[in-house]
TrEMBL record, chains A, B:
Coiled-coil features, chain-numbered ranges: none
Keywords, alphabetical: FAD, Flavoprotein, Oxidoreductase
Protein name per the record: FAD-binding oxidoreductase
InterPro entries from the UniProt entry: FAD-bd_oxidored_4_C, FAD-bd_PCMH, FAD-bd_PCMH-like_sf, FAD-bd_PCMH_sub2, FAD-linked_Oxase-like_C, FAD-linked_OxidoTrans_Type4, Oxid_FAD_bind_N, Vanillyl_alc_oxidase_C-sub2
Cofactor(s) in the UniProt record: FAD
Native source organism of the sequence: Lysobacter korlensis
Keyword Flavoprotein found: yes
Gene3D superfamilies: 3.30.465.10, 3.30.70.2740, Vanillyl-alcohol Oxidase, Chain A, domain 4
UniProt-listed SUPFAM superfamilies: FAD-binding/transporter-associated domain-like, FAD-linked oxidases, C-terminal domain
Domain FAD-binding PCMH-type: 49-228
PANTHER family: GLYCOLATE OXIDASE SUBUNIT GLCD (PTHR42934)
Entry keyword annotation includes Flavoprotein: yes
PROSITE patterns linked to this entry: FAD_PCMH
Amino acid sequence: MTTAVLSHLSQLRSALRLDADGAAGGLQVLSTDPAELEIVRADKSGHASSAAPIGIVHARSIDDVQATLRVANALGIPVVTRGAGTGLAGGAIAGAGELVLSTLRMNRVLEISVDDELAVVEPGVLNGDLNAQLVPHGLWFAPDPASRAISTIGGNIATNAGGLLCAKYGVTREAVLGLKIVTAAGDLLSLGHRTVKGVTGFDLTALLIGSEGTLGVIVEATVKLRPLPAGPVATIGAYFETVEQAARASAVITASRLKPAIMEILDARALDAIDAYLGLALGGRGAYLLVQFDGLGAPQEADQAVPIIRSLGGDATLSRDPEEGERLFAIRRSFHPAMERQGTVLIEDVSVPRSRLPAMFAAVTDIERRFDVTIATVAHAGDGNLHPNFVFPGSEVPPKVWEAADELFRTCLRLGGTLTGEHGVGLLKRRWLREELGDVQFELQHKIKRLFDPNDILNPGKVF
Amino acid sequence: MTTAVLSHLSQLRSALRLDADGAAGGLQVLSTDPAELEIVRADKSGHASSAAPIGIVHARSIDDVQATLRVANALGIPVVTRGAGTGLAGGAIAGAGELVLSTLRMNRVLEISVDDELAVVEPGVLNGDLNAQLVPHGLWFAPDPASRAISTIGGNIATNAGGLLCAKYGVTREAVLGLKIVTAAGDLLSLGHRTVKGVTGFDLTALLIGSEGTLGVIVEATVKLRPLPAGPVATIGAYFETVEQAARASAVITASRLKPAIMEILDARALDAIDAYLGLALGGRGAYLLVQFDGLGAPQEADQAVPIIRSLGGDATLSRDPEEGERLFAIRRSFHPAMERQGTVLIEDVSVPRSRLPAMFAAVTDIERRFDVTIATVAHAGDGNLHPNFVFPGSEVPPKVWEAADELFRTCLRLGGTLTGEHGVGLLKRRWLREELGDVQFELQHKIKRLFDPNDILNPGKVF
């Protein structure tokens, strides 16, 4: 370690009132353990930084976050805020000279208000843990990234996480009423409201949601809860000869003004992989459409959806039995583990207007052929969000995969879409951001970043 | 007019390619007609500026907006963007030396996409007009300010308008996917997406929503549509002896995980006024609770709500007949016309966490007595948003009304609420804004304003 780094760590220990080992009361707060530093070089994107960061602060409290940022801001130490590290865009990856600020230990549910249908949580609470605590109250925090069992609410908010239920229940932004954040200078700000409505000044809560650690550190969130949907779900699983047919069926379901909670499409290559993984005989099927309705209207809605699916060539099974429904769902749930058995996976995240879903699927097939790459795709069809999964051998992303991804992004923008529906920009999408935003907006966003963080210490090099 | 004003108007005419009368092709684009200028001194808040502005640009297109702002920015002319002028916080009031930029003529619905459940509209489209065009498609733009028949979508967005349906369907922010805005410098920016999901960079769409004309001019909006709720509504009207009882019933309905589309409370003084207006015999009743359920689950939900209401002292009538339901609703709809017959009305707009609704109602009664003022209150009970209506004779707001309003705001903040739920800050709430935001956030918001508008030409003196 250089003298500068040693001095930085020493000042952090002092500001956090730690002993010479970085501990307090037997608890390691500032860690320089090489094994720990190795972990935070990567996230779930498969990407890793080229060197380890200088240390990790395991914040215990808002005070710790403020103290850390005051020192970092004064000394110009770049700070990478990190929850569970489940991100898929490299946003929480830390490299040489950087300090990781982990919020994982700030994991208390501070309040559940049944009357006001809200919860106040620290950022390190896992999405699944909050939901487990809410079940007895008949309540539910709707954002449902596929990682919900292992991802933190702070991370969900920092990336404006999506998931399977967004077409009906919205993204994370719709479920956050207010935030406490610590600014780069170490100030504590309360943004937003405890109320359903509120229009006092600019909506900084929304500005922070999805800002990927570049504007401030989320230290507390007041989140909106919903009543758990009443009654059993109704689930439909349907096979099609082509993925375009499945995409058309999903479009007609939406256009029929039905509102599934979940509507997912798996393409043929995804089914092949699941086939190998589960030992099923799905092979040779062109696509799978999974549709699930919830709430009091579920049976009626499902009864309307089945004839639509069949009229468009789908071989549909409908079940109102939860166990049978879960079996229809299991095919979708097996997608990610099945992919991991195929090789190294780069998960992309393009989003197009729903009506362009068939065109985007066709483009993926075309790109796969032209660039000689393997792409298996799952789509949240209700909201037009596709996850083309590039699969390749070895641990390095081959150049042709990046070239194919580049073509994928440009196609998506041409179709009126966006290059990341729910994973964020992080490190991996930076090079296309300016293209989507345009120069004037890109500069304006950059100026907002500088306004919040004049010394550029908050997750520098990410997003922009 | 001063020489400077004459020169400013001349440069505007030139930039907009108008003749010496401010017209083009027989259409008046830049107007200095005193009668028109008189109208834009006021909005629906009852407040008016002390002098007329210098002129009104009736923008026909985005080009007109850009040309106007370029001139205004270069010359330092303050610009007040205005839709239909139905605001209740003075946000669109224009005074001496200011230029009004009206978007009322930009009133085309540019696109309705049934497949993508979205519409693209110019800012001057009336909320009610868009909804009338959507009915044949079975679609619906959910934001429903009480002014929806006469207010523009641009204005709804600029104030993040609420309404009666927000507890179930959200505020305007939840219904906007993307915006085109013109910046103070005259640049055209496309913010947001046509897609349901999208996390590329900071959410400037949300930042602009509710910014009350201080950050940019909204020239186009891509809004999210919903399927019209299926089936007939189920409506409950219930009288209570006290408003606290009605508030408790509404809280228990929410806590029972029911989700009314509408849940409104009128207090005794409101009922007295409606009594006089409609010639009914409501007098002496303590409060009225109106609850309406929609969607496929409406009958079941209403059947669960009635016993709750009765067990808490409510004299409840349930109807699934639309006409009978409309009669139960008519009492609520008569509130504003009934109030206007009582005298001059100042409509306030505080919002508290739902559970504090009984406490806030009690505080209103107490303030009415202590300050010797008359307050009739209607509340959107599902989201804790109260509109205490101060009534007084004459056209000037008496000092004791302002003192009472001041106490009202402070009480609301103490109860964890916000000083404006849905009307905005405008001119009338400025003096309390810093108190709610705190100094550090207030300064940060002000810096954002300066970043977007360095010459302070966009609605200066409003909000901040």
